[in-house]
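We include the pair:
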Amino acid sequence: MQNQPAPFLFEAGKRAVVLLHTFAGSTTDVRVLGRQFQKAGYTVLAPLFTGHGTPDPTTIFTVGNPNQWWQDTTQAIDQLVKSGHPQVLIFGESLGGLFAIKALEERPEVLAGGTISTPLYPVDTSRVAARFLSDARAWYHKQALTPTDLAAKMTILTRAITPMLDRIAAYTVPIQAHLATIRKPVFIGQSGADELIDPTVGQRLADELAHHTQVVYRHYPGAPHVMTYSSQERDLAQDMIAFSNRFFLT
């Protein structure tokens, strides 16, 4: 039986990093990136967003929601601080980036952080919905569900996905509205061939933040939405670690 994704903690030094994964993804998204940070001397904690990483994608909607995912994020920060890591960085990919930015706005223990292919502004989510449903159908086929069970599951997901994406978009509005409060260094990684969201959102975020804080913006031509699964992952990791080494208080 294949092991299900789980939170991971890679221990190294006093410097610590929280890594947040994508919507409908899991800690597997950021596991290789986590190992790169560990090799660079960072303790790394990656929480699993509630409802994610289970054998049934419907749990994303039945037990998960943006408020709960923010709680998952704050609990990860608290865990690191309580275990002797008073200075924390935080990075998130796609959905995870929303909560990384919120942490930069609201959590004083977070010294710096950033996003990877994160829509901090309104975007067309139709491609996200279509990809989610396609991936879910493929996953259910691997489980050899009966046609009746498959149809029932897909009906649930089809009805749930757009309202959830709308809910995430609404949750993002106050985060975007408070960007001007950020005075901490921010790293922004943007895939150049993002197949799910508008690839200009990263530059837009960088331009807005540059008015009041230090920003490192990196564009990766040809990279897909989930860069941590791509051939550009190594370059991304090197850039993020270089950013962290520069801005982390030692």
